[in-house]
Design goal:
- 11% of the residues lie in helices and 38% in strands.
- The protein is mainly β.
- The protein has helices at residues 3-16, 173-182; strands spanning 45-49, 67-68, 75-81, 86-93, 100-108, 111-114, 118-119, 125-132, 138-142, 147-157, 184-188, 196-198, 201-203, 208-215, 218-222.
- The strands form 2 sheets. Strands 1, 2, 4, 5, 6, 7, 10, 13 and 14 form a 9-stranded antiparallel beta sheet that branches. Strands 3-8-9-15-11-12 form a 6-stranded antiparallel beta sheet, with no helix packed on it.
- The protein has one domain (32-222): Chondroitinase Ac, Chain A, domain 3, CATH 2.60.220.
Length: 223
């Protein structure tokens, strides 16, 4: 490990490791956390379960059992209905395309307020779009600012980094330290807003974080 990297990790630990479950202070808008990147140096392939299978409309939910995400957009959509459980799952494929693992699962039961529309009545629906960043383990959930009565739940995996959490091409003790002490789920309201770490339950066994979401914005696995 280089002296510079070692000193950087010591500084991060001194400022953020004493309370690993606490929400961290927001970073200035001009700075960003260290995003965890997809392994392999090229965008992964994704499939989805529970996405809308046809053009968006205000008809009942049409869910596909398995569909591939468009390489141009990396996004899926589904209808969330107030008072009814709705979910979408995104899986990522291995570089050889012969194995698949969960990347994201989003579950909602109570979308309550849509910006520009207002409060939803019981049984009303809103089209939710999940967009995956092809470079970093990061997603955008829209419509931005959608608020929930009972929070939605987001589970997002960082297993697609293949253990290389600092992106130096080597999986070693530094990555183990980042995973156990520094890694977390972060969000920001918009491109001009600061990134902030939020409370999330980590499972090292399946390389994921789970968090309750009171509203929608942009989320990333970072340190």
């Amino acid at each position: 490990m280089t002296t510079r990297r070692f000193l950087m990790l010591l500084t991060l630990c001194a400022t953020g490791c004493s309370h690993p479950t606490a929400v961290q202070q927001a970073l200035p808008p001009s700075h960003a956390p260290h995003f965890v990147r997809w392994a392999g140096g090229s965008p992964p392939q994704f499939t989805s379960i529970g996405a809308v299978s046809g053009p968006a409309s205000r008809r009942p939910l049409l869910a596909s059992s398995l569909s591939s995400l468009s390489l141009a957009q990396y996004s899926v959509a589904f209808w969330a209905v107030r008072g009814q459980p709705r979910s979408v799952q995104i899986n990522y494929l291995s570089s050889t395309g012969d194995t698949s693992a969960p990347f994201l699962r989003l579950t909602t039961t109570d979308p309550a307020f849509v910006p520009g529309v207002g409060e939803l009545a019981l049984g009303d629906s809103v089209l939710i779009t999940v967009s995956v960043d092809p470079d970093n383990i990061k997603v955008s959930l829209e419509p931005t600012g959608l608020q929930f009565g009972e929070p939605g739940q987001l589970q997002i995996s960082y297993g697609g980094a293949d253990g290389d959490l600092n992106g130096d091409g080597v999986v070693d003790d530094v990555d183990a330290y980042i995973e156990s002490q520094l890694l977390g789920l972060w969000y920001r309201e918009g491109q001009d807003s600061a990134w902030t770490r939020i409370s999330a339950a980590q499972s090292v066994w399946d390389k994921s974080f789970v968090s309750d979401l009171p509203h929608f914005s942009e989320y990333a696995i970072s340190w």
